[in-house]
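User: structure tokens for this one?
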Amino acid sequence: MPNVSAGVAVLTSLFLSLAKDRSLHPGAQQLPSFLSPEIMPRGLLWLGFSLLGALLIQAQDTTPNLIPAPSLLSVPLQPNFQDDQFQGKWYVVGLAGNAFSKEEQGEYKMYSTTYELKEDRSYNVTSILLKNQNCDYFIRSFVPSSQSGDFKLGNIKAYPRLKSYTVRVVTTNYNEFAMVFFKAVSQNKENFKITLYGRTKELTNERKEEFIRISKSLGLTDDHILFPVPIDKCIDG
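Assistant:
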């Protein structure tokens, strides 16, 4: 592995720990959504999880200086969140985060995420991604937090280097679009992203502009905002 900066070394250590945890529990596929191969930027890390539990990591010599994650006090929260209406399939139409770069726009393929509401009001969350012409499935659980519309990663104790993983529904009208904020904290490193979901693969320019505005209000720039390339394979059907 090439020499890496301290920031990348910490993240690499975290992800290796996650891979070890999964190899010890092959039935478990609860992975934070930052850990999918089409989500993490190539300039920071490439992560590829196969259904057999293999982990491939490539670290570059440099890593960007990450924009600090915002306080949750500055992140909007959907009023009167309706968990039953939010469930179902969403396409990832937009991505923005402190580990993304506009230079890699073409590397990001659209993927789908399905929220299945359980009796305890938590969600089983399944993302389907196209990786090397194969369909990869990533399954985790989001458990309700103190406020309606806030969630945390279920079974976080399985990932000892991951201190916290926060999910917040920023805004949604349930039948067209949603914006969701994610923050992962590990060893004093904070990664955050905002996802623009659509019930269909296309959203209006007005929705995209709103997504850009909210992303910038959280400290991101145009260089950190991407719109994944629409595809059909794996995510339809």
